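== Sequence and structure of one protein ==
=== Format: two labelled lines per protein ===
==== Data for this protein ====
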Amino acid sequence: MDGLARTEIGIDIVGIDYRVVFQNQTLKQRFGDLSGQLCYEKYMGLERPCDFCPMMKAIRRNRVESIELIAADGRNYELLSAPFPNPDGTVDKAIEVVLDITERKQAEEREKRLQEELYLSSRLASIGELAAGVAHELNNPLTGIIGFSQRLLRKSTDETVSQDLERIH
């Protein structure tokens, strides 16, 4: 287990009683020495076992279980849990590999936010193009109306008609 103790990846062994049996140095540095303590209290800050506990699922199903979670330290982790058999073949604990994925999650969130901003910019550009097209379509007939009203205004001798033409112009 000496090699497990020195890796950058968090590794622990947890019993079916939810007590931490082993932690490598990476997890000790992050959470303190939790030997003999309840995993859900110290890792997750909970008062009772997690409903989604991958360790118990791994033991019950006799296969690797995986989950992404936010631990009590506020960081995002991917947790891989696998049954850890005793020499006699019985299984009463699981080994867990704990990967800090906080930076990846933050990058994904930034990318999502940028995609949303890009989509909004694209929509605003489309609206701008539509508004420019509508303005152009309105300006063409209005130019004719204004020009025609100027011509009529110059030729008109009726005061009421001239006032109406002034309003148009």
About this structure: Residues 23 and 147 are 86 Å apart (CA to CA). Residues 102-155 form the longest helix (54 residues).
